[in-house]
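Pilot study result, target chain (368 residues):
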Amino acid sequence: MFHALAIAALVLMPPVEEWRVAVPDYAWSFPRDHWAHDGYRTEWWYFTGHLEGDGRRFGYQFTFFRIGIISEPIELDSDWASSHVIMGHAAVTDLESGRHVFSEVLYREIPLLASFDHEPEERIGWSRGPAGTKALWTLDFTGDGFRIAARDDWLKMGFELTTRATKSRIFQGPGGFSRKGRDVGAASQYYSYTRLETSGELTMGGERFEVAGESWMDKEFSSSQLAPQQVGWDWFSLQLDDGRELMLYIMRREDGTTDYAKGTVVSPEGEARYLELGDFSFEARRHWVSPATEARYPVAWRVLVPSEGLELDVHALVDDQENKSRLPGGVYYWEGAVAISVTGVSGEVLGRGFVELTGYGEGNRPPV
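Predicted structure:
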């Protein structure tokens, strides 16, 4: 999803007007658009999933952000001239023990530190790992899916996963134009793979597991999303056992009310139908307060989509799935694995997914 968070606080950026903005008639071209796009302030590749191995269950997250710090290419004949920084976020939650581990990297896009490549290279992007970790963080396109890898040897956490699309790519919003508000430019170019068969190796607490499961992938690029009155968002990616998927987001005002909202329902056959605010609703049923940041997050919801006959009870599998940065700026947000119970006209259905919550806590508004 669109979670550039407080990255802008870490780098000095030109005004939004100097960057390219998302447009309704963007000319998509695949596989080219899996790779990086210059001229946009923020771009990200985002994976979440549920994995099982050796009788253990895990949730994981992997995100690469490419953040522009100069809107025009640097007129300097040097490999060390850099107009972007790369940030990586990786997290694993042991759903049995409740332990959640988060790691991050932040590098300028220069040789030996980090780079984003272009088609037809298999590698989409890479960076060095955190301090003390020799292994690179990597993202590759395989033709029918993606390969991702991240490790943090100090935290004794990591994964190397291969994914394969079992449903076709879908656009989030007509033509892949995803509005986040009423202001001009408050939008992104956005597509998803809502079902990725996933397998590989995962490390937690220094113990290695052969794992398999299912993932969700989002790709977005844009230059401005939050309107002045918006403080953050709640975003849901839900995979139902009946073959449907549901993506919902609301942009929140400071008082917690909804300023803007959109959604997408994907049929078992892979057809996307777009939802407006009046087509769905959700209500927080339970909250959790972080002992680390004192942010109060919702961790259980009732989600209603009447046109689909859905009444979803969604709840966090572990309350403490807060990602807390160790970098300057104090970035923190909640990114967690959830379970779904659905009661509707078609009877009870089970499912699972991920929820992202930003802008909770004092002075924690994402500057995007």
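One observation from the pilot: The mean pLDDT is 91. A full batch analysis is planned for the follow-on phase.
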